[in-house]
Amino acid sequence: MSSDEYVTHLPRINVATEAPGSYRAMLLLNKSAHDGIDPILAELIKIRASQLNGCGFCIDMHSTDARKQGEHERRIYALPAWRELSFYTARERAALALTEEGTLLAEGGVSDETWAEAEKHFSQAELAQIIALIATINAWNRIGVISRNQPPALDGTE
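and the corresponding structure tokens:
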């Protein structure tokens, strides 16, 4: 496929500029949703939800952030197949299952089995924060996809 065959999606709107109050509120929610959550686990949750939602901007940003936190590239690349690999701890698997079911709510919501497994690995306070983090990244994904937010170009040009 030649480069001119790829569809280029131009950004539609800058939500930060056009709805600054809402955007500031999202930034505050985002900051508080991370409280008490391991930074690498938080990035894995955000990457996985963003993959499910097809938010390229967020996948790019959180993969970059995960690497800055020390996450191994192989674990980032393999995240869509986390169930098949031994790269992820039982705790991470519980959080990723909760993330997937919490993101794909229309497919049946969070099962009792997924919730019970999450309760084995996280305190109630941690679970509440993970729920807040899942809700927040899903909101960011919707902003990114609807507005067609674009990450910086690979060559550094816009």
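(Above: one complete record from the training split.) The chain has eight helices and no strands.
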